[in-house]
């Protein structure tokens, strides 16, 4: 009985390590860390960026799996939500930048002058959808 539990634990840990390694490799492959360092002129702190991403992943998993309570209530939740949104947005933009989706799309549709409005609309729509979901109006 205990051998089965140990084996399942080892398999679970190894699977998680492989998935996390793949995700972090994908982030590095997209150039997300180097883009942050380049845009902020902080290339000397690139190891800090990488350590922060890994530490964030580890801490989130610990908090999620063991249901650790973090004091701070709604205020801290809002701050963490903003940071998570920024991270996901940067990730999506890095992926789109790698694929050169936006330049081709913009040229073909001839929407160069409306780009600021499109970006504002996308961000407001994302914010409104997240607020409606998390406030429980139409969430699962």
Automatic annotation (TrEMBL):
Organism domain of life: Bacteria
One Pfam family recorded for the sequence: SpoVAB
InterPro entries reported for this sequence: SpoVAB
Keyword hit for Repeat: no
Record-annotated membrane-spanning stretches: 6-35, 47-66, 78-102, 114-135
Keywords: Membrane, Transmembrane, Transmembrane helix
Keyword Glycoprotein belongs to the record: no
Protein name in UniProt: Stage V sporulation protein AB
Organism, as annotated: Sellimonas intestinalis
């Amino acid at each position: 009985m205990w051998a089965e539990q140990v084996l399942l634990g080892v398999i679970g840990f190894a699977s998680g390590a492989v998935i996390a390694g793949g995700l972090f490799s994908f982030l590095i492959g997209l150039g997300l860390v180097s883009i942050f360092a380049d845009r902020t002129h902080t290339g000397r702190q690139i190891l800090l960026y990488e350590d922060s991403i890994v530490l964030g992943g580890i801490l989130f998993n610990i908090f999620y799996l063991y249901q650790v309570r973090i004091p701070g209530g709604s205020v801290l939740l809002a701050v963490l939500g903003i940071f998570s949104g920024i991270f996901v947005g940067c990730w999506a933009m890095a992926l789109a930048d790698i694929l050169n989706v936006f330049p081709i799309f913009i040229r073909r549709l001839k929407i160069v002058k409306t780009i600021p409005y499109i970006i504002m609309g996308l961000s407001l729509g994302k914010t409104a959808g997240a607020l409606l979901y998390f406030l429980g109006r139409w969430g699962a």
